[in-house]
């Protein structure tokens, strides 16, 4: 099925969890996840839900991290 | 000289941004030189602007900065609607574990000035969600009144458009805000370019200043950070000391009595 991750379309297996997607498909590590925050379909997903949330068709996932700012 | 803001008592009245420095080292040294206890940060897509390893370096800096009475102030920079700003604030709270938010809801790409209507809407909702809102606003009296009505405990009127270095464009309007909202902590945010601008804001009785470009884009950002630190302290001392009243007519400071004979007609 298709989802959108940080503005780009991604093809993933049905039923994949967010955490599995981020670690296995996007190649991120636990350290990166520790300093990141996620919104799905413009709604905040608490970190505690990363490994429980099963991605749905056309989910729009935004993963953000701390950056410099004025 | 204690500075009470959002339930904290701080020594420094200079808030500083983390952006636009020549290097991470320059940023860290400039912030140390400034003596600031509050720095602004933001959130963006992982890897969009910086490599993953640089993100980790910055994250580690933020963790160490927060020791010893120093705090992060996440911003909603780049948001053009209340909806965007609210989600950004929620994500920042989840990430940084603070309910503080520098609320920016921009209305124009050229001036980067706030959209006042979206700003008030966002402030109201975020306050209802338990945020401590630091609203970046203009010097408009009515806008500031509305922000206070919806529950803001702090105001952050601009000196001038972000990054312009123009200083205090409208001292009259700012003076009016200071006078009208005497009990509200007010921080001049944006547009400062020189230490004298910061001193001027503090002499007017503002509680602090927030700046980024003026330090980051100075030729020597570390020394400039120190200059702003001193300017904020000097301006605040001047305010507390009570400056003389401006006069129209000259008044000799040297005594008239006892002038020598050659001054006689």
Question: How would you describe what is shown here?
Answer:
Chain A has helices at 18-25, 30-34, and strands spanning 2-5, 8-11, 36-40, 43-45, 60-68. The longest helix of chain A is centred in the first third of the chain and has 8 residues, at 18-25. In chain A, 19% of the residues lie in helices and 36% in strands. Chain A has two helices and five strands. Chain A has a five-stranded mixed beta sheet with strand order 2-1-5-3-4. Chain A is an alpha+beta fold and 70 residues long. With 265 residues, chain B is α/β, with parallel strands linked by helices. Helices cover 40% and strands 15% of the residues of chain B. Chain B is built from nine helices and ten strands. Chain B has a five-stranded parallel beta sheet. Chain B has a three-stranded parallel beta sheet with strand order 6-7-8. Chain B has a two-stranded antiparallel sheet with strand order 1-2. Chain B is globular and about 80 Å long. The mean pLDDT of chain B is 94. The chains are: A alpha+beta (70), B alpha/beta (265). Chain A binds chain B through residues 6-7, 28, 31-32, 35-37, 39, 42-44, 46-47, 62-70, and chain B through 17-21, 27, 40-46, 48-50, 52, 55-56, 58-59, 62, 74-75, 77, 83, 87, 90-92, 94-96, 162-163, 212-213.
